[in-house]
């Protein structure tokens, strides 16, 4: 087990030994631990090398962006110890673990319930935004309202996603068509019907749709 894996295990143990934090943090802990594990040994898992290379390229771009627009003094997205340190998902996972375990706050970008962070989207919609992470969990940080056109696009994508979930839970073919039709990349009922028909024919597991 390498150093990152050891630290993840240590942080996970520290948090789960604190009953007051477990109900609030266990789901988030499992998500970040799984993300970290995916990138721990990229050369031992087929196909992960390319993904790791993509992550490194993304890290480099993020570094360039931070040089152009550095974080506010005293608060680094991955915590004080991470300032000046490059890392991908595994570094972010450890930073989140540290904050959940009481090692100081961090502001990574995470998927979280909206709770007003993106005005105009449902409170319970999942959004990818900067979050303040502490021993009480991840708290999305409110941003400026989106321009009208961007908000309309975000609403359409969220509608498509939520309708897809409902279609999967209910087995409704009509809702599957609604989901495709609602997505901005489709936006047409006749195209949506053809897409569902194509998936229905190609994937036997979708034949349960009625």
Automatic annotation (TrEMBL):
Coiled-coil blocks: none
Keywords tagged on the record: Glycosidase, Hydrolase, Manganese, Metal-binding, NAD
Pfam family, one: Glyco_hydro_4C
GO BP terms, alphabetized: carbohydrate metabolic process
Cofactor: NAD(+)
Source organism superkingdom: Bacteria
Comp. bias regions, Basic and acidic residues: 59-71
PANTHER family: 6-PHOSPHO-BETA-GLUCOSIDASE, 6-PHOSPHO-BETA-GLUCOSIDASE-RELATED
The protein, known as: Glucosidase
Provenance organism: Amycolatopsis methanolica 239
């Amino acid at each position: 087990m390498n150093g990152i894996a050891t630290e993840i295990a240590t942080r996970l143990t520290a948090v789960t030994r604190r009953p007051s934090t477990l109900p609030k943090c266990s789901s988030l802990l499992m998500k970040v631990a799984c993300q970290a594990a995916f990138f721990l040994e990229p050369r031992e898992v087929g196909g992960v090398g390319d993904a790791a290379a993509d992550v490194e390229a993304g890290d480099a771009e993020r570094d360039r962006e931070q040089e152009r627009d550095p974080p506010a003094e005293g608060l680094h997205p991955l915590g004080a110890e991470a300032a000046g340190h490059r890392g991908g998902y595994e570094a972010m996972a450890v930073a989140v673990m540290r904050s959940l375990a009481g090692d100081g706050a961090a502001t990574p970008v995470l998927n979280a319930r909206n709770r007003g962070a993106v005005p105009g989207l449902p409170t319970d919609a999942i959004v990818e935004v900067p979050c303040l992470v502490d021993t009480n969990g991840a708290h999305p940080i409110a941003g400026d309202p989106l321009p009208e056109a961007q908000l309309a696009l975000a609403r359409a994508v969220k509608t498509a996603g939520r309708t897809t979930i409902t279609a999967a839970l209910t087995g409704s073919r009509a809702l599957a068509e609604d989901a495709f039709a609602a997505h901005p990349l489709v936006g047409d009922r006749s195209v949506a019907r053809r897409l569902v028909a194509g998936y229905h024919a190609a994937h036997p597991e979708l034949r349960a749709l009625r």
